[in-house]
Amino acid sequence: MRAVVYESFGELPTIRSVDEPECPPHGAVIAVTATGVCRSDWHAWLGHDDTVLLPHVPGHEFVGTIVRVGADVRSWSGGERVTAPFVNACGTCAVCAEGRQNVCPNQTQPGFDRWGSFAERVIVHHADTNLVAVPGSIDDATAAALGCRFATAYRAVTARGRVCAGEEVVVFGCGGVGLSAILVAVAAGAHVVAVDVSVAARDLAVRLGAAVAVDGEAEDADVQVSAATDGGAHVVIEALGRASLLRRGLASLRPGGRHVQVGLLAGADSVPALDVGRVIALELELLGSHGMPAHEYPAMLDQIARGIIDPSALVGRTVSLDDAPSALAAMSGPAATAGTTVILL
């Protein structure tokens, strides 16, 4: 099969012919029809994830059709159109029994500790726990983000941020996750303020329903955020992964506010200095958010089916597998277009 492969971190990947994956007894092999180019893939390519072993095939958010299932799989037979959370949970441990498959201690992740979906075939382990049927009404380019960016944002806003109608929500970083969070928060009835350095990203944020868009590099950006939220946000979503934005997010909250950290903090940012005194004095909540387990997908898919949320508006451009290496490398610079980039196979 054809796949995107890199043999050293930061080196431009190439398209190569590699062996098709063997199907594990508990897993399934998926013929990939679309896969997203996510900032997490970029982090892995640069060596920010110590689970990645070289040579490596990136990619972790995808949609496709089941072409093989293992002997131990009971819920799938082949031919179904599916996606999967980027965290492939074991389904049998105590954490999974609590419904927290997205933080399973025995997890595997395609595109990180396993070869991923920038290829014609990808394996999903523990298929009965992790596969999710995708309705035919959702096109491939849109469905590709359901395994990571959109599902991650959906859970960050609804389950972790507990956003309610009428609340003030600030989203720092208007890439794929941030724009998805705006879409979900607006659907929940929140008043949303978007913060980003990109004019194109801010414009798209407003088209998706953000009431106010603030230039993150403006000298008075934080003053603008405070004014737009009537003195402070109920919920902040940090969707980029910067220690400075984590600190600004906490400073933007009103008493009792909730900061949801979705963006991955790498390198020197990974252990940030925080004003814990403010967290204590104002009873702020600092919440991590990591993906979404498969059993929580039905509520999200129902909202999509009923037109309450429309993730198709997030797709910025589509590219071929041959263009995937340059699309991944392009994430090192300013975004050429707002919205997500999706590889169509």
TrEMBL record:
Enoyl reductase (ER) domain: from which residue to which, for each copy?
10-343
Keyword Ligase on entry: no
Keyword vocabulary terms for this entry: Metal-binding, Oxidoreductase, Zinc
Query: Which SMART domains does the UniProt record give?
Result: PKS_ER (SM00829)
Its Gene Ontology molecular function terms?
oxidoreductase activity; zinc ion binding
| Cofactor(s) demanded | Zn(2+)
Domain of life per record: Bacteria
Give the UniProt family note: Belongs to the zinc-containing alcohol dehydrogenase family.
Q: What is this protein called?
A: Alcohol dehydrogenase
Q: Which organism is it from?
A: Microbacterium pygmaeum
